[in-house]
Please model this.
Amino acid sequence: AQSVTQPDIHITVSEGASLELRCNYSYGATPYLFWYVQSPGQGLQLLLKYFSGDTLVQGIKGFEAEFKRSQSSFNLRKPSVHWSDAAEYFCAVGVNTGFQKLVFGTGTRLLVSP
Amino acid sequence: DAMVIQNPRYQVTQFGKPVTLSCSQTLNHNVMYWYQQKSSQAPKLLFHYYDKDFNNEADTPDNFQSRRPNTSFCFLDIRSPGLGDAAMYLCATQDGSVNQRKHFGDGTRLSIL
Model:
C-alpha cells in the first residue's frame, strides 16, 4: 500500500539558514509527489509537485524539491528561511486511481528562530 | 479572491446533534473532495465527487454523508457527531484532469461539546 513518511515531527531553523525537510514514499508505480504548506487555522497551499521529467522541481516562495527514485525520497529545500515560513509542511503522494487520491505524510512543523 | 469557500470557519455542535458543513467553489471544477484532519495529524480523505458520482473511501464511517446539489456546492453531513469527530474538515476541488492541482479551502474547525 502507498504511504508517506516524514521522519521529523518538528524542526527549528534560524532565520536565514538553509532548510531541508525529509520525505520518503512507498508506492509501486511512478509517483506523483507534492509538498503542501499549512499555516495555523488555514487550508493547504501547494508549494510544488513532481509528475515526471526533471527531478529537481521549483516551487513557490523559493522552495525546491528533488525526486530521488533510488532513495524513494522527495526532500524539500530552501536556501534561506524567512520567519514567515514557519508552518506545517506536508508531503503527499498522488495515487492515480482515476482522480488522484492524495496520501499525506504526518507533517513536519517548522519553527523559525530569530 | 477566495476560490474555495468553506462555511462556517468554526462550528460547535453537541454530542449526537446533526451538523452540516458547506463548501462552495467558483472554479467550476468537476471534482470536489472532503478531508478530515485531526489535531497534529495528516489530512485523511473521506470521500469525493466526480461530477455527480459519489465515491466513498472504504474506511469512512457511515456517520459521514455528503451531498452535491450542483457543481458549485458540496455539503458534509455528520449525522450523530461523537467526540472523536472533532477535527478540521477541509474541502478541495480539482479540474477533472488527473494532473491538475487541487485547490483547498481554509477549512471548518468542528468542536463537539
